[in-house]
Amino acid sequence: MSRRRQIYEGKAKVLFEGPEPGTIVQHFKDDASAFNNQKRGVITGKGVLNNRISEFLMLRLAEIGIPTHLLRRLNMREQLVREVEIIPLEVVVRNVAAGSLARRLAIPEGTALPRSIIEYHYKKDELGDPLVSEEHITAFGWASTREIDEIVQIALRVNDFLTGLFVGIKIRLIDFRLEFGRLHTDDDTQIVIADEISPDNCRLWDAQTNEKMDKDRFREDLGRVEEGYQEVARRLGILPEGGPADFRAPKAMQ
Ligand code: 5GP
Question: How far is the CA of 133 from the centre of ligand 1 (A)?
């Protein structure tokens, strides 16, 4: 197999040049980090699970006409995606108070919000992804007003759809973070969802017990981190063919 050119290595993923121009291979690692990289660890099998979960959710979104960067899953840890120009924002949608919102505004975790709230964070590790307003985004040229309108529309549709999908498997979608990119074609530019949608960037609580089934198990040292991710995959009906055994033996590029 020919060696591929690595474009970028992040905390949880590596990006390689894809087989055709305009494509990228997104490789999911087991590495986990939190609190702006101050806490690091490995969640065995996480990459395999997130690859599957994100593929599943992005395919469902595509089916209802929400554009994403996903082309197809390639193997246990990799998917082929379209190359996009990443918009330097983390767009967070919240339904229930948790995490940084609960801390910042001293709202007890678990409080239902009066309506869904969208937050923007400037994507800049050195600054700890600070909260910004639409004014900052347009003034500094990170996105235009029209692009923000489109991002909000997509984010709210994703929230409605995923909330319902998770209700169906007895999971509460507390909040999640999306990233967006500009997909340039010859005569058009389209805003699409990029990165991943997985328990790494969604808060998912069991509907009956409120048990956390996402990366907060790692962030808060709750233990049984892998089990949380596995249970989400199991309820979605997408455990790999080999069952949990496949998660124990990460298969790098097959
Ligand atoms: P919070 O701002 O409460 O820490 O996070 C809100 C939501 O966005 C959570 O679902 C969290 O997992 C996700 N999120 C926010 N920032 C990041 C980040 O830098 N990386 C990941 N993986 N998820 C994030």
Answer: 17
Largest CA distance in the chain: 54
* Residues in contact with ligand 1 (CB, 6 Å cut-off): 90, 92, 98-101, 129, 175-177, 200-203, 215
Between CA 183 and CA 199 the distance in angstroms is: 25
Give residue for tokens 């910042």.
104
Q: Among 46, 172, 177, which residue has the most ligand 1 atoms within 8 Å of its CB, making it the best to mutate? A: 177
Closest CA to 176 of 95, 72, 81: 95
* pLDDT per residue as tens, the chain (254 positions): 557 899 999 999 999 999 999 999 999 999 999 998 899 999 999 999 999 999 999 999 999 999 999 999 999 999 999 999 999 999 999 999 999 999 999 999 999 999 999 999 999 999 999 999 999 999 999 999 999 999 999 999 999 999 999 999 999 999 999 999 999 998 999 999 999 999 999 999 999 999 999 999 999 999 999 999 999 999 999 986 555 555 544 443 33
Q: Write the DSSP assignment of 151-169 as a string of letters.
A: HHHHHHHHHHHHHHHHHTT
